[in-house]
Amino acid sequence: MNYAELHCHSYYSFHDGASSLEELMLRAKELGYHALAITDHDNLCGAMRFAQLAHSLEMKGIVGAEITLHGGFHLTLLARDRQGYGNLCRLITAAHAAGERNVPELPPELLPEHAAGLITLSGCQRGELAQLVDNSRLDEARQLVRQYLDWFSTENYYIELQQNLAFGDTERNKSLLELARETGARVVATGNIHYHIRER
User: Fold this and answer.
1) How many Cα atoms are found within 13 Å in the side-chain-facing hemisphere of 157?
2) Distance between CA atoms of residues 107 and 95, nearest Å
3) What is the overall mean pLDDT for the chain?
4) How far apart are CA 29 and CA 96, in angstroms?
5) Polymerase/histidinol phosphatase N-terminal domain: from which residue to which, for each copy (predicted)?
């Protein structure tokens, strides 16, 4: 299967993710994924262990994070290379410095100066783009997509589509696909994974 999961939380997404890095990697390998990204909330606590596991399992491991922006919106960032990893570290540090204690909030205006080496996904249903679409604020949604395309380029910004069988997913995805067609943005399907097996 030529599939890579690009939005996955381990138990380093505190109070949110349920499974260890080992459990997630082994399950991905079992399912035939060729790559897995770990995108824990506002931290890279598992990055080193994740890289070691990916190497030992001969899988491509992609280091990322789901960043909390000002206003509580989520944005998924993936490090494409060493420079991207450095910029991801800087953005996480800035989010923790700008937010209240244990409530990181990255000012979005810091994103463009740290965009090099990063791939950006629009985020889950708690992302700003999804929230605008859910509230029928489509002109603002178009403007937001164009802003991110300007900051990150067409090659490095993707509108995230998730079908988790939650209320509103199907209609949201239709609207997001239409936005992608209108703006020239690319789309990517992700699972917003929080556990390696349903029983967890």
Assistant:
1) 22
2) 7
3) 95
4) 33
5) 4-71
The span from the CA of 83 to the CA of 11, in Å, is 26
**CB of 68 within 8 A of CB of 102?**
no
Q: What pTM was estimated for this model as a whole?
A: 0.95
In DSSP terms, which residues pair with 62 in a beta bridge?
37
Each residue of 79-120: pLDDT tens digit?
Answer: 999 999 999 999 999 999 998 888 999 999 999 999 999 999
The answer to whether residue 198 sits within a structural domain is: no
CATH number, domain at 156? 3.20.20.140
| Helix, strand, coil percent content, the chain, rounded in steps of 5 | 40, 20, 40
Decide if 194 is inside a domain. Answer: no
Asked if residue 166 lies in contact with residue 181, where contact means CB atoms within 8 angstroms, the answer is no
Tokens, residue 152: 């990150």
- Say if 92 falls within a structural domain: yes
DSSP 46: T
Tell me the C-alpha distance between 150 and 112, whole Å. 9
CA dihedral 123, 51, 107, 93 (to 10 degrees): 160
Distance of CA 42 to the CA centre of its chain: 11
